[in-house]
Amino acid sequence: MVLPLAMLLVAPLLAQTEPDTLPPLPNLMEMQELEQVVILPTGPGCHTHGDKPLGSLDSYLAESNSVNMIRRGCYAMEPMLNGMATERSVVTVDGMRIYGACTDKMDPVTSYVETSNLSRARIKSGSSGGEHGGTIAGSIDLERRRTGFKDKRGWGGTASAGFEGNNAQRIFGTALNYAGPSLYTDVDFTFRKADNYRAGHRPDASNTVDFSQFTKYNLSAIAGYKLSAGNEVEASVIYDKATDVGYPGLPMDVSLAEALIGSVQYRHLPRNGPVSLWETKLYYNTITHVMDDSHRPVVPIRMDMPGWSTTEGFYTKLYASAGKHAIKATLSGHRNNSLAEMTMYPNNPAEPAMFMLTWPDVRTLYSGLNAEDRIRFNERLDLTVHAGLGIHENTIGSEFGRRSLELFYVSLPPSKQRWLPSGGATLSHRKGRFTHRIGAGYSERAPSVSEGYGFYLLNANDNYDYVGDPRMRNEGSLSAELTSAYKHGKLELEWSAAWFHIVDYIIGKPRPELMPMNITASGVKVYEQIPYATLFNMALTAAYRFSDTWQLLGDASWRYGQGSDGTRLPLIQPLQFRTKLRYAKKQYVAEASAEGSSRNRHSPEFGETSKPGYLIGNLSVSREFAIKKHRLSVNLGVDNLLDQYYTTFSDWLGIPSMGRNVYAHVVYAW
Fold it and tell me: How many angstroms separate the Cα of 370 from the Cα of each of 138, 423, 448?
């Protein structure tokens, strides 16, 4: 118990820092907003903050106590919010809804952005995250970096390069921005290429993890123009392409993952009146994802599994204030087409190929209205109330796909409409050194495309084929949250707990009478609903500053999940802890950190195995050089210092985590 308690002394801190001082302590007392913000490094000098300046977005999100990452390889990890997978959350980029095109969730929304073009991730919990769709866990909005308008015209940019020794990952990037009184532009390009990574040391065993390589290109561009005082337009585009992506946690790899995401936005900022901002955006995105096993040396049967997703949408937001009220209202809507197919090629050429639609051209139409009112009674007390209502409709566009599902559901209607209500309130009270917040809410979500319409989708973790059920009811959730923070001098503490009671919980259950389509599968599971499931999350963070140069940070978190029928919910995080000691003086920053976990409470029903606890250490040092008016930042470090062999609870199929990794990142900013 001594070690876990010692590890409680941390807070995940991702904030911009000055080159010659420690970063400010995280302001745990500012809890008025119903969101947590993970701030990414930005601006000149940010690269001396001690973290990897060219690290993946996945690693930054994992710093939040609310987020875990499901890892099927070294690329495109799936974010779990409040212990729930992406079916139960809404992940957006600048407020834009994006649907993945992969039935195995190899292409989460977070895979189409880079840390170099992202400024922050806004995380909302539970019903407060329903601004752009029905949700149970909450929402994550990835907000991209913008230079914005400036009175003085000027150019800026960066050039970066990095190398990580474990998997020989090469990272190259460049960014260019311009800002003036009526125009700004931001263009960013990043390239990553990695070989197979190596796990930690094991005696008399190979530590190379095959099929874990990847190649990725990402281009992001934003341009804003001021039409007149208080009237602005902005256009943006993201093009992301990944090739030759290996997934050691899956039986297939990815030959192509390609995304094109574009938008046009109008902002109106009135000079007078209660409305402070009116913002409207139109957006479009298309995703192509191709799974194949052509590079696997031995497979029982060859398969091609391409998928496509196209989304068109809009939102319009209004911000206003009147007296004690600060109001935000959002009207949003989108339309999505999701289509995926599978072709199986028997090893015997005389046998015919087998074809099926795994997503039968599912068309989703959503429109919703969401409002939030923050009422500030006085300096100590405020109340935030939010409510929303969405209309969600699914239609099967493929007659072939509909008839395939009719093998399970006779006379299946081609469409299904649902109403998705949400609402809640949070009360915040501040007195002296303490801040307390208590909240409650209710929300509903529709079954995902896979849960409703999936047709023989293999889950490699439990080795079952899954079949959806479009007739299921909405999943609803009652949630409660309690947070307390304390600040005194050099010490800050925050404790939080969240409880979710999820009614009509959607989960896959075995159907012994059904034969699997995949010849290696253990059987077939059909999505159905149990009366309820309970999830409980708890976290503690702390920060203590010894002096102007020394700082100690730490955090610990734990989750529990159980179904009404006694089912242990899958992928539930055990006790995890992190601690970090930071030294910063002038142009130097040095950090020593440790992170670890207790043994997981595994769910054998979903293919999970017991994974022992672990403890690893990391070191990093950075130095900034001034070159006239420009800056050169050099970051050196080593993760998993002792080359420990370990597997976390969220490593798909029990694949081992990365062993010792020595890295060097260099960023030149002008």
Answer: 14, 9, 21
Q: What is the pLDDT of residues 3-55, one digit of tens each?
A: 333 333 333 322 333 333 333 433 433 444 567 776 665 443 343 334 688 99
| Residue 333 covered by a domain | no
Residues in the chain, total: 670
Q: Cβ atoms within 10 A of the Cβ of 628, count?
A: 6
Q: Domain holding 250: CATH number?
A: 2.40.170.20
pLDDT at 423 over 80: yes
Number of structural domains (the chain) is: 1
Question: Strand ranges (DSSP E) for 377-454?
Answer: 381-396, 415-431, 434-445
Q: What proportion of the chain, given as a percentage, has pLDDT over 90?
A: 84
The one-letter amino acid at 411: S
As a whole number, mean pLDDT of residues 144-155 equals: 94
Do the beta carbons of residue 595 and residue 588 sit within 8 Å?
A: no
Contact 582, 591 (CB under 8 A): yes
Side chain identity at residue 289, one-letter code? H
pLDDT at 512 over 80: yes
Q: Which amino acid is at 424?
A: G
Q: What is the pTM of this model?
A: 0.92
Beta-carbon contacts of residue 350 (< 8 Å; ≥ 6 apart): none
Q: Is residue 334 part of a domain?
A: no
The span from the CA of 418 to the CA of 175, in Å, is 44
Strands 78-81 and 588-597: unpaired
- Three-state SS for 442-486 is EEEECCCHHHHHCEEEEECCCCEEEECCCCCCCEEEEEEEEEEEE
Kindly state the DSSP code that residue 86 receives in the 8-state scheme.
Answer: G
Asked if pLDDT for residue 315 goes beyond 70, the answer is yes
Count of CB atoms situated within 10 Å of the CB of 316: 15
Beta bridge pairs of residue 561: 535
335 domain-assigned: no
Which stretches of 565-660 are assigned E, i.e. beta strand? Answer: 576-585, 588-597, 614-627, 630-639
Task: Tell me which amino acid residue 543 is.
Answer: A
Quick one: average pLDDT of 231-251?
A: 97
Residue 218 lies in a domain: yes
Query: Rounded to 5 degrees, what are φ and ψ at 57?
Result: -60, -35
Q: In what order do the strands lie in the sheet containing 96-97?
A: 36-39, 118-125, 138-144, 89-93, 96-97
Q: How far is CA 652 from CA 77, 460, 606, in A?
A: 10, 8, 11
Number of Cβ within a 10 Å radius of residue 67: 23
Find the Cα–Cα–Cα–Cα dihedral 290, 212, 74, 166, rounded to 10°. Answer: -150
Residue 628 pLDDT grade (very low, low, confident, very high; cuts 50, 70, 90) = confident
Closest CA to 638 of 572, 590, 581: 590
254: closest CA among 143, 111, 51?
111
Exposure letters 587-618 (e unless 16+ CB within 10 A, then b): bbbbbebbbbbbebbbbebbbbeebeebebeb
Instruction: Look up the domain containing 212 and give its range.
Output: 2-138+146-291+299-323+353-669
Q: How far apart are CA 465 and CA 447, in angstroms?
A: 18
Alpha-carbon distance 524 to 463, whole Å? 9
555-582: per-residue pLDDT in tens?
Answer: 999 999 999 999 999 999 999 999 999 9
Q: Which of these, 43, 34, 36, 71, lies nearest to 56 by C-alpha position? A: 71
Residue 553 CA to residue 6 CA, distance in Å, equals: 11
Question: 518 with 456: CB under 8 angstroms?
Answer: yes
- How many other C-beta atoms lie within 10 A of the C-beta of residue 576? 23
